[in-house]
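Structure tokens please, single chain.
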Amino acid sequence: MDEKLCEIIFNSIHDGVFTVDKRCIITSFNKAAEGITGFQASEALGKHCFDIFRADICHKRCAIKDTLKNYDPVENARVAIITREGCELPINVTTTILKDEDDNIVGAVEFFTDVSEVEQLKEYLHRSRVLEDIITVNHRMQKLIGLLPDIAASDCSVLIEGPSGSGKELFAQAIHNLSPRRYGPYIGINCAALPATLLESELFGYEKGAFTDAKSSKPGQFCLANGGTLLLDEIAEMDRSLQVKLLRVLNDGEYRPLGSAKTLKANVRIIAATNADLKKRISEGQFREDLYFRINVVGLEIPALRERQEDIAPLIEHFVRLLRKKTNKPIQRVSPEAIAELRKYPFPGNVRELENAIEHAFVMCHSKEILAEHLPQHILTEAVIKNGNGSDSENEEAVIKEALVRNRGHRTLVARELGMHRSTLWRKMKMYRI
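Here you go.
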């Protein structure tokens, strides 16, 4: 074949292609290779391939070197290279042997493809799946969710504060699942569930004979969570003597099992959660201030459900879908009257209590629609009417807008759902310029 034609074909290939001789010196470099790496062919020719690609495996297990050594092709190996501009770029490489007309090995050829867009798409889809359990339309919650990828990418300690049942565990799990540690273990331990001595042995483990009942050695949660994430739930309830030992782990990255003279390394990310006011606990002498600052490198404060009423309807729809699948009941929706009753209730148990209320209604309901009568009696008897008595709730405008969207602008249905007279709804819409 004509040499000029070969060159045209070589430079028309969409994938990056280069060839090397038996010493891994680059002998050809096509246009696509220039575009992907940022190096011109004139810069690459005559250089060792590792001088151009600077890949993460160049000095460990180079694909093209393996091919030259073992004569075996490499297919679709994922490699990270450094471009001319100094940026890390993921590529897939395929290599094979090059032979001359006499069947002598003269070098190797590598085909490579930029997979950065594919990996970005995979990461986006992964993030979407991770965050799909956090159901919210609340602006404050959306802002917190927007911070999660950046928080997850770091390895700093995180403190999640919020009332019981507000979703602190969901945020902790999301941080782990979005982080580089997501392939490692995720372990949660409730600091309020065990007395100090048991909690210490549970966290750090113990050696055989460390105490009377220690018949054999047992690894602690710091050991079991190695390479992953450890959630310390209800950390405010941790005994002060144990707080000192936890602080030492956070400061030095080391711990010692009970009864052991050996110090172990702790490769664990700490996420702490609490429903208590830690600053108040500090002022009362119940929580160490130095530990507070050590666990609160990044802080997230999850609002109570009563502070984000616009989330009630989306959460109801979410729980109905989950329970319909779980129970195989043909329940399709919750009536506007039932939603109105749920909106009037302050939900001291937050999202968890709302979920329990819908599950209760699933037990009681034998039709396709949950009615107010199917809700727990305490919600019906203790509900506080807010929206119909001129409440100045900061979320009222968002609640009305969300109800208008859900009911396609039908004001009668919106008023019924929100438990207010139609004229009251009109007055509030005018006030908020909706």
